[in-house]
Every structure is written in C-alpha cells, then in structure tokens.
Amino acid sequence: MINSIDGVISLIYIIAIFIIGLWAGIRHKAKSNGSSANEYFLAGKTLRWPMIGLALFATNISCIHLVSLAQSGFDSGLLNGNFEWMASFTLILLAVFFVPFYLKSGVSTLPDFLEKRYDRASRDWLAIVSVASAIIIHIAFSLLAGGIVLQTLLGINMYYSVIAIAIITAVYTIVGGLTAVVVTESIQTVVLLAGAIIMSLVAYNKMGGWQPMVNVLEQTNQLQKLSMMRPHGDASGLPWYAVFLGYPILGIWYWCADQTIVQRVLGAKDENHGRAGSLFCGFMKILPVFIFVMPGLFAWTLYKTGQLNIDSLKVIHEGKETINSKGIYTLMILQLVPKGLAGILVAALLSGLMSQISGALNSISTLVSYDMYKRWRPQATDDSLVKVGKIAAGASLVFSLLLLPLLNRYESIFNGLNDIIAHIAPPITCVFLLGVFWKGASAQSAKLTLYLGSALGVLVFITGKVFPASLIGQIPFMVMAFYLFCVCVAIQVVTAKLYPVVYSPQSEVLYWQSPFEALKSPGWKGIGNYKFLSVMLIVIMSVLFWIFR
C-alpha cells in the first residue's frame, strides 16, 4: 500500500477535479444564458483545436492503457504498441475525410449522421450499439482496471473504490455536460502524461538505461520483445499482417465512428479546429509506446535481474505456477517510485479512469436524448432532453458496475477489450466507409449490413468462446475482424445492387466524389494547415515503424 502522504495527494486531486468540473459546467451555463441541449451536449460548438486534441487523447487513454499496456509490455514487449501508433493513421482519416461531413451536416450524434446519409433505421441501430459499446468498452473495462489498481495501492475493496470514483465523476459530468468533460479532460491529460513520464524515467534509471535492458533481452533470447512487427506463427497471435489487416477495422470504428470519441470533434468551433484537433491527438498518440508500454518492458528486465520482486503476482493455475501480470504497474509504483511521486502516479491513474468515464457518460446521455428519446418525442423541449440524458448517464453507470465480475475473467484487459471491439466494429466501419466514399451505398444496403453483420459478429464471438479449439476459436481476433469486414462489404455491395440508392437533398452531398475532393479545402495557412500536419504525421510514423519493425 502507498503511504499517507501519497494518499493525501490522491485525495486532493480527486477533490480538485470535482470542483473544477462543477465550476466549468456551471460557468459555461451562466455565460450562455441558459441550459439548451446544444450547450449541454456539445458545449455550444465552441471548442478549439487544443482542447479537442487533449480531450480526444484523454477519452481514449484510461486506466486500461496505464495498467494493461504495462502488462502487455511485461508479457510481449512492444507488440501492443501497434494499437497506439496505428491510431495516428486513422486520426488522419478522421481529420481529412470525416470531419468535414460531420460538421457540414450539423449533426449532434453519429447516428444522426447515418440518418442523413442513409435512413432512420440505420440511425436507430447505431444508437443502440453505441450506447452498449460505451457502457461495456469505455466505462466497465475502465472501472475494472481502476478497481484492480486502487485495491492494490489503497487496500480498499475494488468495488467500493470504483463506485466512489464513478459517483464523483458522474456528478460533475451530469451537472456540467460536455464543457465540464472537456475542461477536466484537458487537465487530466496533463496529469496523466506527467505520471506516465515519471514512471518511465524511474524504470529507465533503475535499469541503468537502454543498453542494459537490451543486454538482458539478448541474454534471455527475448530480443523479439523490441519488435512491433512479428512473423507468421508468433506466439502472440498478432503477426504483422494481422495488425495491418485488422487494426484499420477496429481503428476506423473507434476513432471515426464511435460517439464517445468523436463527440469532441462534433463540438468544434469550425472545420479547421476539428481537423487540427484530431491531428494534434494523432501526434500525441506517439507517446504511449514510450511512456505506457516501455515501462512494462523495463519491469520484465528488472524482474529478470532481481531488481523487481513479483512474488505477489505469482499464482497456481492448473497445477503450474504462472504470473498474473495485471498488477505489474501497481507493483512498480509500490517498489520503484519514491514517496510523494507515488501520489502523482495514483493521480495519473485516477485521471485516466475519470476522463474515460466522464467522456462515455456524456456521449451516452447525448445518444439517448437525441437518438432515442427525441426519436419518439420529436417535440421534446431542451429541458426534457437534458433531463433524460442525465437519467441515462446515471443508469448506464449502474449497469457498468454490474458487468465488472464478468469482464474480470479476461487474463489480459487490453486484449479482452480489443477482442470485443473486433466483433462489434466490422459492420459499422463498413457502412461509414462505403457511405462516405461510395455513391452507390444505399439505405437498404446499410441497414441489412448493420443487422446481418452485427448478428454474425455476435455469433462468431460466442462460438469462439464456447468452442475455443474450433477453427473459429483459433483465428486471432484481429484477423477475424478483417474477415468479418470483408463479409460486411460483400453484403453491402450485393444488397446495394438489389436495392439501388435513392438520394435525398441531404444525402447526395454527404459522400466524396473522389478522395482528392477532400483536399480542396485550403485550410489554415502555415504550420497549422491540415495537409501539412497530415504529411508530417505520416512521415514520422513511417520512420518509427521502420525503427521498431
């Protein structure tokens, strides 16, 4: 357990974020002279690029990343860093191709965009799936990771600690809306990064630098831990082709078509701020490999050299001693970090947990209000929309807490998270991609793709879990995501031929005649131009992948 000084630092941080969140939301409400739904859910569309980028990063990075990326670094080295660096490319897609349509159409939610591009049935289906995914992926998994950490560090029962943090976060989120979420997320991003950098430096110094770590990897025949591109048959189940085929399917859904993430962009002041904010986040996604994954790899070499005691993580499974590496990050805090600094690390973990929960709760309230309640009550007032959104946020939080025992069965939180996404994402990625890039994508074809693709994803997921030795159970989840996506594309293309597209005045301007059409917008002049930033980001990421290939 951490000492009292670090505990006090953590408590002060929680109280400060709570006060700042309430203050930001109430202040924005007072300045806007009212509590309209637009002000509450989208911050009155006033967000500028720095806050958008920071909020995107904060909503993405949670306790899951701090805990599970360190775990993956300990178990398999830099491999899972692919999920972080590949995100930069999908953020370029968001900035260049999706942001213009989202802002031009004036939508409040992504299901709203699907209705404008396709029809109401597609909107309804995506709204349901988006709420479910926000509850499971963005809240429940984050609570699980946070609970494991807080139980180890503070000695408090996992469920008691996450319930307390969840309630505190829910209060300022429900009261303050998106403004409170974005302001607190911006602060939490800075704290989270500071904590992660401290841990990286502590582990680096304890090991004695980079070369001693490499020497240990050489001596133990584990140099492949430094490689992000693994060969066919790698024990991890993530060879290089699985990453390049599967990640775009997961990433496009997550960064371009998931309400919890994209809602920050929907609140942008204009197209240039939306684009620059997305690309700013793309540059920030370079950091996690070095400050989240790398500490786990250092922990492994410290363990091998006797400088990190992991006896508390050893368990007996099926008669054999194994290491339950879920707790490696908290073990590093307890054994490696000096007093006082450990409190900052705990604050960083809390930042990740609170920012993820607040972002997801705000997106759920927006989806339920606009895409469900207003769907059945078109004349609903702004006050009633806000009220329903607040009730939905509270109910979803309770349901997320009930899911914790079930999700805790995954050995790796990060792999469990992505395993679920791999079976949810393919049909949604398909209808968004074809909807934006193919004029022949019809409403009927989108609806059938969402229905059939989602049903197939659930069937494959259940089959793989019930019969793990079957052919389906043996296919890596990233490769399975690609296969499911190909089936969804086939469904949409074939059904689009059977049910040709009929455009409305709205839908006929919501697709690109060609990819180059997206580049016609001049953007800002100078270094902030979205074309310049996109090219720079592509070059940097290509160099990094080459170095760690």
UniProtKB/TrEMBL annotation:
One Pfam family, short name: SSF
Transmembrane segments: 6-26, 47-70, 85-103, 124-153, 159-183, 190-207, 238-257, 278-303, 341-370, 391-408, 420-438, 450-469, 475-494, 530-548
Localization annotation: Membrane
CDD domains in UniProt: SLC5sbd_SGLT1-like (cd10329)
Keyword tags: Membrane, Transmembrane, Transmembrane helix
Membrane topology, as annotated: Multi-pass membrane protein
Main location: membrane
Protein family membership: Belongs to the sodium:solute symporter (SSF) (TC 2.A.21) family.
Record protein name field: SSS family solute:Na+ symporter
